[in-house]
Each structure stands twice: as structure tokens, then as C-alpha cells.
Amino acid sequence: MHKQLAQEIVENEAGQLFIEGDWHPNPLPTNIELEEMAYPDTSYSFTTFYSKKPVGFKLGYASGNYGHGIFTTGENGEINIGKFVVLQCTRIISNLSVIIKDHCMFSWGSVITDSWLGLETKSPAARKAMLKQAAHSYNRHLEFIDPQPVTIEENVWVGFEAIILPGVTIGKGAVIGCKAVVSQDVSPYAVVVGNPARVIKYLDPTDTEQEKEAALRLFIN
Known about the structure:
This protein is an alpha/beta fold. It is built from two helices and 20 strands. It has helices at 124-136, 209-220, and strands spanning 9-11, 17-19, 32-34, 57-59, 64-66, 70-73, 79-81, 86-88, 91-94, 98-100, 105-106, 111-113, 150-152, 157-158, 163-164, 169-170, 175-176, 181-182, 190-193, 198-202. The strands form four sheets. It has a seven-stranded mixed sheet, with no helix packed on it. A hairpin with a 4-residue loop joins strand 19 and strand 20. The relative contact order is 0.09. Keywords: Acyltransferase, Amino-acid biosynthesis, Diaminopimelate biosynthesis, Lysine biosynthesis, Repeat, Transferase.
């Protein structure tokens, strides 16, 4: 791997890639993409990563996975994380698509999922079929019915143990309070709290292109 990462990646004789000094000695999946200065943390984060997509996971420039966050995917799941994103003990579950754009921060225990038990799985027969499928799969992964994509726009902050549910789009600059459960779209620059999440205020935009360029100049220098 020629890219300069925040961790050293080594290759064994079989062509498998490992994180140098990783406490969990498994190889990284072959279908993940790590941009320069990315910090994947540990291969343990991918123990339930079953995506068969050409690129099932992407960690953008200078983004980091800290505290052994877990990335769980089904065969068709994709997780795409932008630049300068902080994931702190974050659980991401994807059977379709989870997109996190640049400059987002996720606190301890936050969960993002594009899959849930909804009306289509309410009947005992439907749940029995799902459990039977999982029991006969080699990895015991439960493939959910009708996953809905999740998109988190730029500069979103998510508090600890907040949960973002399937089909949600969170607008640019929004703040999700601690332990909030978000099941509906969130407008840009909204602050939401509670279960179900509700808007308590709106923020004035301070993340203009000019402000971002000034902040990046300070970071680079």
C-alpha cells in the first residue's frame, strides 16, 4: 500500500494487509479503501464486515476510527466516509448504503444503521424466514428486508449513544444530541434532542467555504 496512512500497513507473503502492531491479528478486508492519513485503528472493526461490493468501505483523507468502532455490513452493504471525520466507538450497520460526508464527528456509542425491523418484518412468518436465512449462512449475518440509505451531510456532530435510523438524511451543520433517536430527516443547522428526536433550535451557519479554507490553512500550517 503506497499511501501514507496514520498507521503502518504491512503485507505478508500471501498479499494480505495487516495493521502494524494490531492487537487483533486478522488481515484487513480486500475490498476497503483507505485514503492518505486515514486511521483504521484495528482489523477487529471489520469482524462483521461481509460486503461483496468492489469497495464496501471507504475511509477518507485524515479520517479516523477510534476506540474500536465496528463496521457491520451485509453482502450488498456499503459504508462511505468522507474527509476529516472522527468516529469514536461508533457502530455502523449497512445492508445498502451509509454515506458520511466531510468534517463530521461521532461520539461514544453512537449508532448509524440503514436496516431495522419494520412493518414488513412484523409477522412471525417474516421473522422466521429471516432467522432461517441467518442460521444457514456461513457467518450468521441477518440480511434485513428493505434497507433504506442513510446520508449524513457535512459538518454534522452526533452525541454519545445517539441512534440514526434507516432512510434518514441529516442536513449540513446539524447537531444530534446525546441519546437522541433520529427516525426522520433533520434540516441543515438544526439541533435535535430526545426520543423521538425533535428540533429545539437552529444554528447560524459558520461553515462557509471561506471559513473552511481559513481553518484548513491553520491546520496545514
